[in-house]
Write a structure and sequence with these properties.
With 331 residues, this protein is an alpha/beta fold. It has a single domain (23-329), classed as Glycosidases (TIM Barrel, Alpha-Beta Barrel), CATH 3.20.20. The chain has 13 helices and twelve strands. The strands form two sheets. It has an eight-stranded parallel barrel, surrounded by five helices. 42% of the residues are buried. It binds (3S,4R)-3-hydroxy-2-oxopiperidin-4-yl beta-D-xylopyranoside.
Length: 331
């Protein structure tokens, strides 16, 4: 190789090495991403996740139906793969999630109305999974999306768990998880509780009650799947009131989708929205970090028809302006 060519190669290598990554600025508060085990075989995805982020959440791999396909038959393969990846890349690992109204295995769903049996399998499931990952999980979303929409009644979503076990199932889940992995931070996680509203007011009351009763709850996670312009204006105020109760708070599933087709203007507004969300966490000492739900549009779950391009990098791994905007808010 000529001297000229060699210098070009060396200079480009130098650029790759000194290129800033988000995690380099996220020292006091982590910056996380959801990881999908299947996408790790994509070399670019595999390289970027660990280079940019210092925390990871399993997108689907730790959900009940993914882990325990039928009663007592566990398949930890994909979840273990993600935990190993996080350890290799010096990332925190969040656990997601023991109880959710979706992705329940058929055998458990069939126990609707059978209190004694359902109680038993819920306890078995949480104990088995928390014990399997003991010491490797920084924080667990013990229960996910268990609140009802308007804070009415006993404030909890109707369905298998509430109908069959009654409202105390949430407290029980926290107690069971704590007994199995006493060092993990235990969270309640939900959507629609990002700002101050009836749903987050109801959660606030519940959390106060649980704390007073000694339930081992340590954190509140707000999902934050927003539409363009939809970052709750009271996000900071709301996170702060939970922090003031003596809890950790975190943004756990951030992304900001816009109506397709995209444009430069939409991307610029999206950058401002991302910045708003990160800045809401920045000045609250007990806001421990922000996790984005995927980082590239290449592997992105859109559940809102006509909307998309919600992640920080596009489908070709090209950074959007949101990446720079977010970087400014990291500490
Ligand atoms: C989503 C995943 O991103 C999808 O791949 C899957 O099909 C459904 O679940 N709230 C949550 C997450 O807590 O677990 C959900 O993840 C998105 C909404």
């Amino acid at each position: 190789m000529s001297l000229f060519k060699t210098s070009i190669v060396l200079v480009s290598l130098l650029f790759v090495c000194i290129e800033a990554h988000l995690r380099d600025k996220a020292k006091q508060k982590y910056i996380g991403t959801a990881l999908a085990a299947h996408a790790l075989s994509d070399p670019e995805y595999n390289q970027m996740a660990g280079a940019e982020f210092n925390s990871a959440s399993p997108e689907n791999e730790m959900k009940w139906a993914a882990l325990e396909t039928s009663r007592g038959h566990y398949n930890f393969g994909d979840a273990d793969k993600l935990v190993a990846y996080a350890q290799q890349h010096d990332m925190k690992m969040r656990g997601h999630t023991f109880l959710w109204h979706r992705r329940i295995p058929a055998y458990a769903e069939a126990l609707h109305g059978n209190k004694a049996e359902l109680e038993k399998v819920v306890k078995e499931h949480i104990t088995k999974v928390a014990t399997h990952f003991k010491g490797k999980i920084y924080a667990w979303d013990v229960v996910n999306e268990v609140l009802n929409e308007d804070g009415s009644g006993n404030k909890l979503r109707k369905g298998l768990f509430l109908d069959t076990l009654g409202p105390s199932y949430v407290e029980e889940a926290f107690r069971t998880a704590h007994a199995a992995d006493p060092n993990a931070k235990l969270y309640i996680n939900d959507y629609g509780i990002e700002g101050k509203n009836k749903k987050s007011d109801a959660l606030y009351e519940l959390v106060k009650e649980w704390k007073a009763k000694g339930v081992p709850i340590h954190g509140v996670g707000v999902q934050a799947h927003f539409r363009e312009g939809g970052v709750a204006s009271t996000l900071h105020e709301n996170l702060k009131r939970f922090a003031d109760l003596g809890l950790d708070v975190a943004i756990t599933e951030l992304n900001i989708r816009y109506k397709l087709p995209g444009s430069a203007d939409k991307k610029a507004k999206q950058a401002q929205d991302y910045e708003k969300a990160f800045s809401a966490c920045k000045t609250i000492p007990r806001c421990v970090g922000v996790t984005v739900w995927g980082f590239t549009d290449k592997y992105s779950n859109i559940f809102d028809k006509g909307y998309g391009e919600q992640e920080l990098w596009d489908q070709h791994y090209k950074p959007k302006s949101a990446v720079n905007a977010v970087e400014k808010e990291l500490i």
